[in-house]
């Protein structure tokens, strides 16, 4: 759903860019953002927070050679914007005087989705009703559920990007989110379960998803873990279920394929384009056009239309993800991966929706062909060293595999491995692809919405860090 240029008129944009270029800069950019958001939080049966807010401003970037100056302002008057442009030009150490006139060409990018119900038009009471419904459903799942928290959130982010290359682009991004967390108490202490759903759509999200079912799944996850045995320790075969394991590829492989980390030599994939870096079963894609998913948009935060970028094709590394600045230096186009948290931040290379393409095996075949191991239904938070590819993730829902069958639930376990090693060790990929839960990717102090997904897959030689003797 592309936006319009009403955030700022074109003549003002041209004068602001001109002020950025006036001291001899190579490149100047104006990024304008108007973001409205609201949220509601329920905890222990009571609505604790009901908030709404608006953030509006502009960031001005000026580039001279390898030097970048940046300034941001919440003053969207022409005088305020020109002052920010002059400050950015001064910070970029530009030299010389002169005037450049920039002809702006409108970038037309197809909307990845259509919003049917603007969340801002929905009464707050209806949003609170969703929270109360989820709380009731979670508690009805069992007496061992001792704590329930639920969160509703929505946002509408309108952006405009213009630069001295002649780009003029805009977008209107609407997102809706709901999450439920449950705590169950028993002989093994307190166990948690969580479910969330989020899409780049409006309030129609709740015509597609039942928050009561979401809450019941979260509660059942916590209750199941009460009877779970401690996870084993050691190297073993791991089967990762659809959707829930996508975060591993986002963290362990995706970040290493971002051109800024590659350029710094901070990626294990640096200099390996054209090489076999994964099993031939692996095709890894980053796709900002993926309609309605959490990481989709019409244009990125540098005005480049979103793209579907194949990063690894049949195990061969074919490309990295690029933002505009690094792509300019390499004499190539951006891949539409220039993103920023807000107008107060510089853009950098970021993922959008990163996923592994599905294969031909059925999930039942993959499990039946696994004599022993661990089935991971959902992974939690983790850490990765992009220079080495080493990672560790918490397993929020996992089970033993014995004699080709999924058996007992496990708790208190981590999944430990190395990104390139896991890519090479994948020997089965299922035909049941699914996207996982919505996420916020943190990098260099900035957070942006991202999605990830996988089909069922199997890899040998991962390490389970458990507590079982």
Task: Please give a structural write-up.
Helices cover 20% and strands 41% of the residues. The protein is an alpha+beta fold and 469 residues long. The strands form four sheets. Strands 1, 2, 3, 4, 5, 6 and 7 form a seven-stranded mixed sheet that branches. Helix 1 (10-21) runs parallel beside helix 2 (78-91) and helix 3 runs parallel beside helix 5 (211-226). The chain is globular, with a radius of gyration of 24 Å. The N and C termini lie far apart (55 Å). The relative contact order is 0.14.
List keywords for this structure.
469 residues; alpha+beta; seven-stranded mixed β-sheet; 24 strands; disordered N terminus
Q: What is the topology?
A:
Blueprint: H1 10-21, E1 27-43, E2 46-64, E3 67-73, H2 78-91, E4 105-106, H3 124-139, E5 145-163, E6 167-186, E7 189-199, H4 205-208, H5 211-226, E8 229-230, E9 234-240, H6 246-254, H7 259-263, E10 284-287, E11 308-313, E12 316-317, H8 324-330, E13 338-339, E14 348-349, E15 353-356, H9 363-368, E16 372-384, E17 390-402, E18 405-411, E19 414-418, H10 419-425, E20 426-429, E21 434-435, E22 439-443, E23 446-454, E24 457-465
Instruction: Output the number of helix runs.
Output: 10
Q: State the oligomer.
A: single chain
Shape: globular
> Beta-sheet strand percentage?
35-45%
Provide the gyration radius in Å.
24 Å
The percentage helix is 10-25%
By DSSP, the count of extended strands is 24
Mean pLDDT score, rounded? 94
Distance between the terminal alpha carbons, to the nearest Å?
55 Å
**Low-confidence spans:** 1-5
Largest sheet: 7 strands, mixed
* Helix-and-strand structural type: alpha+beta
């Amino acid at each position: 759903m592309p936006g319009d240029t009403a955030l700022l008129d074109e003549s003002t944009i041209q004068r602001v860019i001109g002020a950025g270029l006036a001291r001899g800069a190579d490149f100047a950019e104006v990024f304008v953002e108007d973001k409205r958001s609201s949220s509601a939080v329920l905890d222990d049966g009571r609505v604790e927070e009901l908030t709404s807010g608006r953030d509006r401003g502009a960031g001005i970037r000026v580039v001279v050679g390898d030097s970048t100056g940046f300034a941001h302002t919440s003053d969207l008057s022409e005088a305020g914007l020109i002052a920010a442009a002059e400050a950015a030009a001064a910070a970029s150490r530009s030299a010389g005087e002169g005037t450049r006139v920039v002809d702006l060409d409108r970038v037309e990018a197809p909307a990845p989705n259509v919003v049917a119900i603007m969340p801002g038009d929905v009464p707050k009471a209806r949003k609170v009703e969703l929270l109360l419904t989820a709380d009731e459903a979670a508690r009805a799942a069992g007496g061992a559920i001792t704590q329930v928290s639920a969160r509703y959130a929505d946002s509408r982010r309108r952006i405009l990007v213009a630069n001295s290359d002649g780009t003029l682009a805009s977008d209107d991004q609407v997102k809706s989110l709901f999450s439920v967390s449950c705590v169950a108490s028993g002989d093994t202490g307190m166990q948690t379960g969580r479910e969330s759903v989020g899409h780049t759509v409006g309030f129609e999200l709740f015509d597609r998803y039942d928050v009561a079912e979401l809450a019941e799944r979260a509660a059942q996850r916590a209750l199941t873990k009460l009877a779970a045995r401690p996870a084993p320790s050691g190297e073993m075969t791991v089967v990762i279920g659809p959707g829930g394991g996508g975060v591993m590829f986002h963290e362990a492989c995706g970040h290493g394929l971002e051109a800024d980390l590659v350029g710094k030599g901070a990626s294990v994939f640096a200099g390996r384009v054209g090489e076999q870096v994964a099993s031939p079963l692996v095709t890894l894609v980053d796709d900002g056009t993926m309609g309605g998913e959490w990481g989709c948009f019409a244009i990125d935060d540098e005005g480049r239309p979103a793209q579907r970028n194949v990063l690894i094709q049949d195990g061969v590394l074919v490309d990295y993800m690029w933002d505009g600045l690094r792509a300019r230096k390499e004499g190539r186009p951006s891949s539409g991966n220039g993103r920023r948290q807000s107008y107060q931040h510089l853009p950098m290379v970021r993922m959008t929706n990163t996923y592994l393409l599905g294969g031909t095996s059925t999930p039942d075949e993959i499990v039946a062909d696994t004599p022993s191991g661990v089935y991971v239904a959902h992974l939690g938070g983790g850490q990765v060293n992009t220079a080495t590819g080493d990672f560790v993730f918490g397993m929020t829902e996992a089970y033993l595999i014995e004699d080709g069958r999924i058996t007992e639930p496990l708790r208190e376990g981590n999944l430990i491995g190395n990104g390139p090693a896991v890519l090479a060790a994948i020997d089965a990929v299922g035909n049941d692809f699914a996207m996982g839960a919505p996420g916020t990717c943190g990098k260099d102090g900035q957070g942006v919405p991202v999605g990830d997904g996988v089909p069922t897959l199997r890899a040998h030689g991962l390490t389970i860090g458990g507590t079982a003797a």
